Amino acid sequence: MTPTDWIAALLLGMGGVFFLAGTLGLLRFPDVYTRLHALTKADNVGLGLIVLGLSVQADSWVVVGKMLLIWALVLLAGASVAQLIARSVLRRGIRLWRQ
Amino acid sequence: MLLQSGFDVALGLGLLWVAWQALNSSDLFKAIVFFIAFGLLMALAWVRMDAPDIALAEAAIGAGVTGALLLGALARLRASNAGETTMGQAGNGQRRFMASRRLLWIPLLLMAAGLGYAVLSLPGYTPGLSAQVAANLGASGVSNPVTAVLLNFRGYDTLLELVVLLLALLGMWSMAGPAPPPSAEAAAVLDGLSRFLTPLVLLVAAYLLWVGTRAPGGAFQAGSLLGAAGVLLILAGWRANVASTALSLRLVLTAGPGVFVAVAAFSLLMSGQMLKYPPAYAGILILIIEIAATLSIGLTLAGLFLGGRPRGERKSP
Amino acid sequence: MPAGSAVTGVSWGALLVLLPLTGAMVCFLWTRAARILGLSTVIAVCLAVAGLGWQLLQEGVYHHAAGGWGAPLGIELYADGLSLLMLIATAAVALAVSIYSTGYFKRARAIRFWPLWLILLAALNALFLSADIFNLYVTLELVGLAAAALTALGGGAAALRGAMRYLLASLLGSLSYLLGVALLYHSFGSVDIAMLAARMESSPTVWAALGLMSAGLIMKTALYPLHFWLPPAHSSAPAPVSAVLSGLVVKASFYLLLRLWLELFGSVSEGIDNMLGLLGSVAVLWGSVQALRQTRLKLLVAYSTVAQLGYLFLAFPLAASAMTAWNAAAYLVISHALAKAAMFLAAGNLMHFAGHDRIADLDRMVQRLPLTVFAFALAGVSIMGLPPSGGFIGKWLLLEAALTQGRWDLVAVVILGGLLAAGYVFKVLGSAFTQAAVPQRARRVPASMEWPALLLACAAIVLGLVTLPVFSLVTIGDAFGVDEVVP
Amino acid sequence: MNAAVLYALVGVGLYSLGLYALIVHAHLVRKILAINVMGSGVFLVLVALARRGGEAGTDAVPQAMVITGIVVAVSATALALILVVKLAAETGYATLSGNRQE
User: Fold this and answer.
1) Domain contains C345
2) CATH code of the domain containing D59
3) Domains: count for chain D
4) How many domains does chain A have?
5) C384 lies in which domain range?
6) What SS3 state is found at B309?
7) C62 phi/psi in degrees, rounded to 5
8) Domain assignment present for D102
9) Which residues in A lie closer than 8 A to residue B235 (C-beta atoms)?
10) Does B189 touch chain A if contact means CB atoms closer than 8 Å?
11) Is C59 part of any domain?
12) Which of C138, C164, C186 lies at the smallest CB-CB distance from D28?
């Protein structure tokens, strides 16, 4: 394995850890708001790391550009959808979780 | 190799599990969300089977548009209090279902086993038509074999398929009445998102249409992206100021099948065989048909999501 | 493709699909003229069928390679005598129903009816012309969706429920059929019927395909016990739509089943033909008894369809005398198409006139709507199988085949079914002669609604007098493969 | 058994699961979901079996057929859903059995 492969593997692995953490939060957190928090924050970083990891190994800059575009779109969609879900939940009168 | 077959097994089991959840979740909303997840897993399975064209179509239509249609219908059902079967009202029927459920397992399991045996006992490997497709690809006018089959070799199927789509919209308009008004106020975020995404989606759709002649993509993928953009705009509360009676709207809806039928009639006149393109013009004819089909598919899918005839009295905000 | 005369040089078969599709889209675009455009399209389709018939008589079977590729890569259109017979019946019913619809539908409904109806017509023609089992799947779906949309056209809970039930049954049927197509494609590497026939050999996969495709098509044909969707759908649709559903749509899936059976599965299936015959027998008896028990006219006519469809399946166990049995099935298909369409149109007139379809309250209809009652009676003659009518010829041929093979059970079913049919037809006619103490709406029925019913019923009778031309038509292309069987 | 046959068997499984749900559930939206799952199963069988001979080449014909099938499925789903919505607005039930009077 070349050094770039090692870097890629490290980035991909870290991305995986973030995804895992996000999923764990989705399953274990107590209410909608905290779950959204876990899902969007952790998965955005996770996907970013995976895109970086794949970019290191990419053949051309076009491919890198496409992947970055995908990341940007997922960020945008994720943020918007999280806001929409939180808004509709809030309107239905579901309270924030307090210890 | 082991890793790959492990992935295939996991994906296969995942498909079955998610399908089971989509079919048997107690909450209908949950079931629909599982169904959308099922569509995405299906797209993954298509990629695993080297069928990126289907993967694109599945993700956009199977999961995206179908999911949006289901959620839209659920919202309207909940408005008329029919979002769930209430056990008390279904009464005897439901109880009879419960009783038959135990017995139903047996014949269905037998059927599944029989079908599985039929699949396993298929005589060897039959080459299918890949050799013929490859041999004639040069004369088809495009270099993506799937597009060649869809728009040239089996173009007649695709012509009828565009009619099926138009028929769905006609059927809906014939029974649905005017579309329900947009929900009271759309979220500002959704509005902003739709304003930002729509041009981008149009760009990607145009790209998919253009690239479809030689790489995965084509009229259906591009059209379903247009449809998705339409769904987003409708969700954001945006309405075009055209009534269902407007000729312009109808012209775009019939553009795909219309151009296709026109090409069929013209080729019938010229060569005696419908949809037989002269090899020199095959590429350009396919492109013309695809452009018209993309517009029709996009508008039809958006129209199906609208859930009724557009009224055209409301100015866009 | 240059050819001798002007008529035989045209590819009428392709036009039979393209014409109604164009008509449907033009009707949709130019709603104001939908009625006249729709009617002219249907007349053009009738002319095209005549052209195709002439072509077949002159040159034998019709082949058309859509896209110019030919099987197995491309899709082939194919028409022989059997397809032509179905196309003629379709054109005849379509013309009558279209004329009827000009009077039946008010403007607001009419502009929705015509595009859907023309698409259904195109889909039926495409189905009768296709020789490609995947293309047949697409046409099946097109037929099913168009028919479901038309069923719901009347509005109201009953029609919506009927349409929904029909749509689900139809989708289930087509998916089963498609799974069979997948298995056949991967067994033999083609979806062209002729190529499959040449490569056909028995295997577990072929058996599974046979089961799936037959079950799916039987569901769409509403053979007992998979008929549950038919009575609600056919009785709640608007009258012209009911006529098309009962007359043509269920026949389309039966035609496809017959075609697959003759070309592909006949050689590899043993024992299933007897099961089909048994289900057919039950359908004849059970459907007729149900029809007798109905108090609503349209439901009675719908259950009669369940019974009459049963007759078609009696031909399968008698296939040893191929000529007689399959001729009987073909005759029954077209005479029932004409007679049942006439019956539904007549029932629509009675309903239009009185505002209800309770059989007991058909107050002296024979004096008020003599043409309509006469049409119903003539159609009833063919349904009962009395001479001289198309229904009589069909049932006579069935009896002949059953007698020569010593199948006394089937003989009994045919005769008993005829008696029961007489029972329910006379139940209606009896009420039409007697007086009932109920107020009637007495709305005028226009001539454009009375004459189509009568002409269709007359056609069903005339069919009994022109047996020889019909038989010679059917032999074009030798769809029944009689050469091998007749000594 | 290779991956192609595995996916074909999954397709058979989906078809059977869908058929089960279609019969068992009364709610029409669930029946529509069941039809869609059945359809996906059929599509899987159609495409997967083309690859059972190994990785060599892909057959474009079944792929094109499946794209056709997906479009037909979405059309049918849209039509069925609007029927359910209208039926529920008319009767208050999204089932075939509920509320028989008209």
Assistant:
1) yes
2) 1.10.287.3510
3) 1
4) 1
5) 271-487
6) strand
7) -100, 130
8) no
9) none
10) yes
11) no
12) C164
**Sequence-separated (6 or more) residues with CB below 8 Å from residue C168:** C229, D22, D31, D35, D80
Q: Is residue C107 part of a domain?
A: no
What ipTM, to 2 d.p.?
A: 0.93
Q: What integer pLDDT is reported at residue C439 of this predicted model? A: 66
From the list C333, C472, C329, the residue with the least C-alpha distance to C402 is C329
Residue D98 located in a structural domain: no
Provide the domain count of chain C: 1
Domain boundaries, chain B: 1-81, 143-317
Tell me, yes or no, whether A84 lies in a domain: yes
CB pair distance less than 8 Å for B187 and A87: yes
Contact C383, C421 (CB under 8 A): yes
| Chain B residue nearest residue A73, CA to CA | B197
Beta bridge partners of B178: B309
User: Per this entry, what is the length of chain A?
Assistant: 99
Report how far Cα B179 is from the mean position of its chain's Cα atoms: 21
Domain presence at residue C337: yes
**Length of chain C, please?**
487
Three-class DSSP labels, chain C: CCCCCCCCCCCHHHHHHHHHHHHHHHHHHCHHHHHHHHHHHHHHHHHHHHHHHHHHHHHCCEEEEECCCCCCCCEEEEECHHHHHHHHHHHHHHHHHHHHHHHHCCHHHHHHHHHHHHHHHHHHHHHHHECEHHHHHHHHHHHHHHHHHHHHHHCCHHHHHHHHHHHHHHHHHHHHHHHHHHHHHHHHCCCEHHHHHHHCCCCHHHHHHHHHHHHHHHHHHCCCCCCCCHHHHHHHCCHHHHHHHHHHHHHHHHHHHHHHHHHHHCCCCCCHHHHHHHHHHHHHHHHHHHHHHCCEHHHHHHHHHHHHHHHHHHCHHHCCCHHHHHHHHHHHHHHHHHHHHHHHHHHHHHHHHHCCCEHHHCCCHHHHCHHHHHHHHHHHHHHHCCCCCHHHHHHHHHHHHHHHCCCHHHHHHHHHHHHHHHHHHHHHHHHHHCCCCCCCCCCCCCHHHHHHHHHHHHHHHHCCCCHHHHHHHHCCCCCCCHHHCCC
Residue B105 burial class via C-beta count within 10 angstroms: exposed 0-12, middle 13-18, buried 19 and up: exposed
CB contact at 8 A, C219 and C172: yes
Instruction: Please answer whether residues D46 and D65 qualify as being in contact, where contact means their C-beta atoms are separated by less than 8 angstroms.
Output: yes
Residues of chain B in contact with residue D7, where contact means CB-CB under 8 angstroms, are: 8, 12, 45, 48-49
**D32: in domain:** yes
| Contact criterion met (CB < 8 Å) for B119 and D23 | no
pTM: 0.94
Q: D44 to chain B: which residues are within 8 Å by CB?
A: 42, 45
Distance CA B137, CA C274 (A): 47
Contacting residues of D for B93, CB less than 8 Å apart: 26, 95, 97
C153-212 pLDDT tens trace: 988 899 999 999 999 999 999 999 999 999 999 999 899 999 999 988 888 999 999 999
pLDDT tens readout for residues C361-397: 887 888 889 999 999 999 999 999 998 899 999 999 9
Q: What percent of chain C has pLDDT over 90?
A: 73
Token pair of C364 as six digits: 């002296």
User: Chains C/B: 3 or more C-beta pairs closer than 8 A?
Assistant: yes
- pLDDT band of residue B184 (cuts 50, 70, 90) is low
